[in-house]
Amino acid sequence: MMICAGALAHAQSGEQGADARQLWQLLDYVAVDYSGAVQGGEIVSEGEYAEMLEFTDTAASRLQALPVTESKDQIAALVQNLGQAVRDKADAARVAELAHEANALLLKAYPMPVAPAHAPDLQAGARLYAAQCASCHGAKGAGDGVAAAGLDPAPIAFTDAERAASRSVLALYQVISQGVEGTSMPAFAELSDDERWALAFFAGGMAYDDAMRERGQDLWNKDPKAKVLYGDLEAIATTSQAEASRTFEPDAARDLTAFVRAEPSVAAAGDPSGLSLARQRLGESLRALRKGEHASASSLALSAYLDGFEPIEPMLGARNPRLLTEVEDAMLAYRSAVGKRDAAAAEQVAGRLDGLFGQVDAELGQAQAAPLTTFLGALTILLREGLEALLIVIGIVAFLKKADRPDALKAVHTGWVLALVAGALTWVAATYLVTISGASRELTEGLGSLLAAVVLLGVGLWMHQKSAAGRWQAYLHQKVSGAMRRRSAWGLFALAFIAVYREVFETVLFYSALATDGNGAALLAGFGAAVVLLALIAWILLRTSARMPIGKFFSLTSILVALLAIVLTGKGVSALQEAGWIDVLPVAAPRIEILGVYPTLQTLAAQAVVLLVVAAGFGFQRRSRISKG
Fold it and tell me: How far, in whole angstroms, is CA 297 from its chain's centroid?
């Protein structure tokens, strides 16, 4: 609906669009401020009453300048009745009803954008308010800023409960965008649309306190009518507290209004998802932490990542890997603060996350990526994910060739081929059948990485032990031959399958995200180029290993395999942290994903343990060889 409205508004001439917006603003101004001019049929402020008369007359003339539509006569009749009600000093509720009815028809007859494209950044709104508005309206919105004394009329008090009940967020947005003639309120046209909406939502929530917002949240969770009334951002932006009172009791309408204006992401897409859901869950987590509900705060923090941010992670990773890393680190830091029950630190990290989410919104809200960007993304993703699996498989294949065991090669080739088939089926399932949850993805990567690391660690220690043994050919034929027939063949199959599938699984998700940009040819070209490069690397490795003396081959390969075990351990523990299986304690360390190095105590400790095992194993074997000879 918003897209259509925006397109139609753009199709109007600039002058007509401005007239419609100004007319809407005038009518809304009358609905909100009339009670300050007339009470009980008596004028209480001559200046404000004169302003109401002027605004209704101006509204009638502005309407005449608009194009003819089916509803124009009906709107004109309502505006005429509104002017007469003001002249008759009618009840404020009747004046507001006529003004809102006219505005509702106006939006249908002359469509214009009435809501932000995505959930606004309220922290950005707070910063803008402090910089642009507090000097007049006051730090708390009470209309008592340092510059207010010399202004006539006085600045609006956003904390005025009666006015707040009649005012919609859209009304505030229009005032911020257009200014108010005859007052000191200027237009803030220099602000972006997102900034004006953020400022409007922040100002629109200043009349409410945390207790109201918490009661509103309970109402949102318990009463289905709340989600019907506020089904999307348009409903939140256009519905005033007074209008919500037609559905709920006055106090409930006030509390619900307080909540949805503070957490507009709950209705950003009807059913929140992506960043909207991440923001919502973070907000709920902070409130739970403040109330001492630590288990709930931790669960909601995990949901913010797995259910909110993680599904869009592949798309962001394909477009801006640096930003993805910043968000992941911040979310781990937030969960760590929650785990320590440190509300102050959690709020600080949540503020940083809100800013990062704004950057993610801007990144993903851009037009589709250029073909070159898609090509480079497809190329680097497959190279990054494929190289690790390639090293493992090539190491196994080279070893079996050195051992003259072509029969065991069949198990390895079957393993990686079936992994590719399983990856293709995963792509079909993820695209057409089911949605792969964030927890499932992280658990698959984490457990697969750790299992492969354990196997590789054992293989590396064994190969290093044999690297200095003499009479290799006799040993391989007599000892390895029988050992590789049954159980070891299955082990090699499993290792090849796990090593390749975990990388294919990750690649499928990233490629699905890249495919949404529509650059199919560039995607395929990047995929093809990466396959060629991986094949070239495989050929070079196999040729090099074939010419290498067998003792040296085993020595170097054992070191490579041990290093891969350390890398996979770091990646596995990190994935299980993101799935919520392992706690998070950030430390001051670099993040080097290609080496499996992440800035958390748990990942670094796990890698240190594996490194110590490798060092101890290699050292023991070396001392054993020296003692023997």
Answer: 18
One-letter identity of residue 396: I
**Prior bond of 314 cis (ω within 30°):** no
Residue 549: count other Cβ atoms within 10 Å of its Cβ.
Answer: 9
Backbone angles phi, psi at 325, to 5 degrees: -60, -40
DSSP 43: E
Question: Residue 539 in 3-state DSSP?
Answer: helix
Encode pLDDT of 453-512 as tens digits. Answer: 776 676 666 555 555 444 444 444 444 444 445 556 676 777 778 778 777 877 776 676
Report DSSP letters for 139-197, one per residue.
Answer: TTSSS--TT-TT-SSPPP-TT-HHHHHH--HHHHHHHHHH--TTSS----TTS-HHHHH
Confidence of residue 13 (pLDDT cuts 50, 70, 90): very low
Structure tokens at 429: 């399932």
Helix, strand or coil, per DSSP, at residue 586: strand
The per-residue pLDDT for range 195-218, each reduced to its tens digit, is 999 999 999 999 999 999 999 999
Measured CA to CA, the distance from residue 534 to residue 531 in angstroms comes to 5
By three-state DSSP, how is residue 341 classified? Answer: coil
Name the amino acid, one letter, at 48: E
CA distance to 217, 226, 246, 259, 316, per residue, from 222 (Å): 9, 9, 19, 13, 34
Which amino acid makes up residue 265?
S
Dihedral sign (CA 35, 41, 47, 49): positive
Residue 547, judged by CB atoms within 10 A of its CB (0-12, 13-18, 19+), counts as: exposed
Give the number of other CB atoms < 10 A from CB of residue 33. Answer: 21
Per-residue exposure over 10-22, b if at least 16 CB sit within 10 Å of its own CB, e if not: eebeeeebebbbb
Task: Find tokens 């059948």 and name the residue.
Answer: 433
CA distance 490 to 408: 9
Question: Both tokens of residue 156?
Answer: 């609006």
Cα–Cα distance measured from residue 195 to residue 463, given in angstroms and rounded to the nearest whole number: 61
Q: Where are the beta strands (DSSP E) in 35-85?
A: 38-39, 42-43
Structure tokens at 389: 């699996």
Strand intervals (E) in 169-295:
none
* Spatial contact of 340 and 349, defined as CB atoms under 8 Å apart: no
Number of helices followed by number of strands (H, E) in the chain? 29, 2
Q: Which residues make Cβ contacts (< 8 Å) with residue 185, sequence separation at least 6?
A: 155, 175, 179
End-to-end CA distance of the chain: give it in Å, rounded: 83
Close Cβ partners of 54 (under 8 Å, ≥ 6 residues apart): none
pLDDT score, position 82:
93
Residue 440 near residue 525, CB atoms below 8 Å: no
The residues pairing with 586 across neighbouring beta strands, listed in sequence order, are 600
pLDDT digits 0-9 by tens, 591-606: 887 788 888 888 899 9
Angle of CA points 534, 540, 542, to nearest 5°: 100
DSSP state of 356: H
b/e 88-104 (16+ beta carbons within 10 angstroms → b): ebbbbeebbbbbbbbbb
| Distance of alpha carbon 192 from alpha carbon 46, whole angstroms | 37
The answer to whether 530 and 379 are in contact (CB under 8 A) is: yes
Rounded-to-integer distance, Cα 326 and Cα 542, Å: 38
Whole-number Å distance between alpha carbons of 492 and 399: 11
